[in-house]
Design goal:
CATH architecture of one domain: 2-Layer Sandwich
CATH class of one domain: Alpha Beta
Distance between the termini: 46 Å
Strand content: 5-15%
Helix content: 40-55%
Strand order of the largest sheet: 3-4-5-7-6-8
CATH superfamily of one domain: HIT-like
Largest sheet: 6 strands, antiparallel
Order of helices and strands: HHEEHEEEHHEEEHHH
Length: about 260
């Protein structure tokens, strides 16, 4: 059984957003036993690294392809939203909301702790690409009709998970409401704004596991919960009663007359 097939089967059988990191690592070991000469999808082989934790080749195009195949929604080509020489953007299959996109650099960056100040332009380009996509989507979502265009960035949740079972850096961008109120759980969630601020001020990211800040974690969690509840109500107000009943029952949603 291929790695990504086993991953999908496990996810379908378990009531969680994503198999936990320990389970992912077991799948990686299983894959490497079957294919000792091939890198496990999304993780890559261990290689000699330059100072700063980056692969000397500074290219992870093959592993990015595997990561997209693993995480892109339904494995469909339509979920691949953008690709160029610097980044890949796709609709997240294991999303924490209906509009969850992931942007990945094509060069090797082993998570937020490998980021340097020189990476800020790349991060800003990724963020701008994601904002363009989510901004376009908000125009088609009734719950966002009352939100002025200039305020859209304030309701987009963007950030990185650390530590992560996948080595390649991934920028996650989300539109509320979410599937759970634990979407920005501290200390794994590191907001985009914090990462940029740390790089500007310290030339590296001060991760919460090494630099605990429970007050900041509580603030971030509270802000995410407030956004979730606000848009849950807006979504309810903008959804026709017949559609709400159909969604609760799992019935086909009636077509407008």
């Amino acid at each position: 059984m291929e790695y990504h097939v086993a991953f999908d089967l496990a996810r379908e059988a378990r009531p969680v957003i994503n198999p936990n990191p320990g389970f992912c690592m077991q799948l990686v070991k299983f894959y490497k036993n079957l294919h000792p000469d091939r890198p496990a999808p999304g993780l890559g082989e261990e290689k000699e690294e330059e100072e700063g934790g980056r692969d000397a080749s500074s290219s992870l195009v093959g592993d990015v392809d595997s990561l997209v195949a693993l995480h892109a929604k339904s494995g469909s080509k339509a979920s691949l939203l953008h690709r160029d020489e610097e980044m890949v953007m796709f609709h997240e299959k294991f999303g924490v909301c209906k509009n969850h996109i992931t942007i990945v650099p094509t060069k090797t960056i082993h998570g937020i702790q490998s980021l340097k100040q020189e990476d800020i332009p790349l991060l800003e380009a990724q963020y701008a690409m994601g904002m363009s996509e989510l901004g376009r989507r908000t125009k088609e979502i009734l719950a966002f009709k009352t939100i002025p265009e200039e305020e859209i960035p304030s309701v987009v949740v963007a950030g990185f998970f650390h530590p992560s079972s996948l080595e390649q850096l991934q920028l996650h961008m989300l539109l509320p409401p979410f599937r759970t109120e634990r979407v920005c759980a501290h200390p794994k969630w590191h907001p985009y704004e914090k990462v940029i601020r740390d790089l500007n001020e310290h030339q590296k990211v001060l991760s919460f596991d090494e630099h605990p800040d429970p007050e900041e974690g509580e603030r971030l969690q509270s802000a995410a919960v407030a956004l979730h509840r606000r848009f849950k109500e807006l979504e309810k107000e903008s959804t026709p009663p017949a559609t709400q009943v159909a969604e609760r029952r799992g019935d086909a949603i009636p077509e407008p007359e």
